[in-house]
Amino acid sequence: MTTPRPPHPPVRPGELPPSVAFLLSRLGYEVSRDMGRALHDAVDLELRQFGLLRLLADAGGRSQRALGETLRIPPNRMVALVDDLEGKGLVERRIHPDDRRAYAVSLTEAGSATLARAYQAAFAVEADTCGPLDPAERTQLLDLLGKLATARMERDDAVPGVHPGLVEPEPES
Predict the structure, then answer these.
(1) What angle do CA 159, 111, 114 make, to 5 degrees?
(2) Are 142 and 149 a contacting pair, CB within 8 Å?
(3) Which of 57, 143, 145, 155 is deepest in the core (most CB within 10 A)?
(4) Where exactly are the structural domains of the chain?
(5) 117: phi > 0 → left, psi -120 to 50 → alpha, else beta; which?
(6) pTM of the complete model
């Protein structure tokens, strides 16, 4: 039988609670907000659009349906997401070479250039976030966060390399 851990000591006003979950949640919220603003200001993209462009850079030419299945996005939502990016000239649909009933989605030249600028904006947010850390501390933090993230992804059957904000949540049963 395991002994329950004692609760954290009370937190005084103005102090951060000694809780990994709280601190990760707070930092994640703030970094996500900053990332959203940076992407909007730099390249007029939303976080989901950036995520799909990143995936297309690695998996361009896959069918729209396969991309939607990877991201666990229902077909109608995937169509809307690709429509938005196609309307901005960042992606294109072509008849899939192996299945004439399907569309292959790829980055356009403008999409690749936009993605490069989006990465610059994202790296600036990371540099600002990690500003208080020296290089060794950043490496250590990255290793520890990677360990936690890997364990969670394995437990939750997450899509590797894809931010969970891009993936549609599973319907509750």
Answers:
(1) 95
(2) no
(3) 57
(4) 25-131
(5) alpha
(6) 0.80
